[in-house]
Amino acid sequence: MKINDSILGAGLLALGASMAFIASGFASFPGQKYGPSLFPSLIASALMLCGGALIVQGLRARRRGEPWVSIDQVMRDRQGFGAAFLVIASILAHILIGDWLGFLPICVVSLATLFLWLGFRPLTVALATLCATVVIWWSFAELLRVPLPHGVLVGLL
Amino acid sequence: MSDVLLQALTLVLDPYVLLVVLVSGAFGMFVGALPGLTATMATALLVPITFFMDPVPALAAIVTASSMAIFAGDIPGAILRMPGTPASAAYVEDSFRLGRKGELNLALGIGVVGSAIGGLFGVALLIFAAPLLAEFALNFTSFEFFWLAALGLSCAIFIASDRPLKAFVALLIGLGAATIGLDPAAGAPRFTFGSTELLAGVPFIPAMIGLFAISEVLRGVWKISSAPRVGETPKVEGSIFGKAAPMLWRYRLNVLRGSTLGSLIGALPGAGADIAAWMSYAVSKRFSKQPEQYGQGHAEGLVDASAANNSAVGGSWIPALVFGIPGDSVTAIVIGVLYMKGMNPGPTVFLQNPQLIYAVFVIFILANLIMVPLGWVAIRVAGRILRVPSGILFPLIMTLCVVGAFAMTNSVYGIIVMLSFGVLGWFLEENGVPIGPIILGLVIGPLFERMFMTSMIKADGELLAFFERPMAAALGVLVVLIWSLAAIRALRLSGAWLLTRR
């Protein structure tokens, strides 16, 4: 997905401006000439300058006929789009319900769904999911003692 | 000196460290040999595990995996014409055509032996130059370090990218993200929006996993049905070293030239293995007696460039260890790891922990020696590695990323940071913004700001003080020069645009 540079530039301009605005509220210390806001403000101004330059570049490209947003052929692929969606959904599941449900159920469901969606046979899916889950749990939770959430399986592990 | 070396040897020649070297070497080979998975990604996936190790095995894992991955990128280049990492792209045409002529063993033999020799060359420069530079750098004040960091960052923008404006944007995003948390001078909270987790700043490892692994996974699964299926691959037949050795001897001067050029380019901040390969390939062609043969399956350029990209790996550690300024995204990760291990990179680490520095040297030599047998195995089983379906790999990598990011904060906060940077990295790369500078900015940001603030306070706002010391002045002038040249070029380009419009 390619957006026109001017949109990117406008976004950066907004980012820089809000950074500068927030930075202007940082505490300053009496007797100290340069406070915590100096460096972020410099970065914010540079971001705004770059944003401006990108807007100019993008508008020139527009005049040459570049569209505001162009979506290439690869992105229209349904299987690919679905897979990318599933990847993000799986990670979001770990973030949102990971503590409650636990790592293992989410890991099993997300891997199996992704493998099935990508067209592997059920037996392959079952084997790959099982092996991966066991190896990952064993090496991280047991060997490296990472406190992966047990969730609903607490007491069973 | 000799007892430091002895200490270093005992640190490295420990069964556990040697096992780490072997395993991470095999891992690096595997990741590098798969097209689409880069050396940076190999490092990014390893770092969460190194978090649980002592400094020496942790560094051993990173050094070995990144060296192996840079060589292993040659394998799919020669077999499928798909470079495994960007560093192998320069000579993919030559190695693929050699393979078509039935000389895969020659192409890959040159790759593995040339890489090992080049790698050792890079290490030699590292061993020779780093302590000398460190002694010199002991006299540096905040002014010199400020300019050095500015120089490193400027090089990253103007050398390593064909789109300086967008690279600068990426750097600013990294530097901006680095200001989140407590400020280094007064300890005031910045951009934390009341969150206690943001007070500690953006955790560097989850951000890096997101930028270099999650963004690749997203891109990879999206393209999965349009990606070419790997069917039968040509087998590597005949002796791997038997044919390559005489060829390397015939082009021994090219090995020397490629390695020297590569290690110097690697030492430049901002330029890494891929640029080293392109430049030495170009130089090789320029001075060759048969330039017309280049790109037709000619071994000469292959010799130069495969020595060059691996020598750059060693070279790139020079600015990282001596000044704490990363040369490329892999050494940016290394610097982050060094900080986490309490070994603040910079000239003083050579005084305080010389045995650790020498241990790194020993590991580098070991990694390049072990590359030859491991590379031999990887070439032999290449067909099988390349047939591992990417539909299985990408979901696995995703899960490893989730676990790795979680392990860094022991909470879902790490996963949140990873996902945000992953989507950001994917979106920016789609729009031509390189993501390497983000990690440079994130890693170097706190040091850069501290040097800048210290210098500003010392100079009391007098900007000329930044140029008062001779070394600072020289570095400062260099930075100003780079920026003015870039500005002139940009103005010329837009001037030309205005003229053509009229």
Plain-language structure description:
The complex is a heterodimer of chains A (157) and B (502). Chain A has 157 residues and is mainly alpha-helical. Chain A is built from five helices and two strands; from the N terminus they run βααβααα. In chain A, strands 1-2 form a two-stranded antiparallel sheet. The radius of gyration of chain A is 24 Å and the shape is flat. With 502 residues, chain B is mainly alpha-helical. Chain B has 24 helices and two strands. Chain B has a two-stranded antiparallel sheet. The interface between A and B is large, with 66 and 60 residues.
Describe the structure in brief.
The complex is a heterodimer of chains A (157) and B (502). Chain A is an all-alpha fold and 157 residues long.
Number of helical stretches of at least 4 residues of chain A: 5
Give the termini distance of chain A in whole angstroms: 44 Å
* Range of helix content of chain B: over 70%
What can be said about the biggest beta sheet of chain A? 2 strands, antiparallel
The H/E string of chain B reads HHHHHHHHHEEHHHHHHHHHHHHHHH
**How much of the residues of chain B is beta strand, in percent?**
under 5%
Distance between the termini of chain B: 69 Å
Unreliable spans of chain B are none
Order of helices and strands of chain A: EHHEHHH
Round the Cα radius of gyration of chain A to an integer and report it.
24 Å
User: How many independent structural domains of chain B?
Assistant: 1
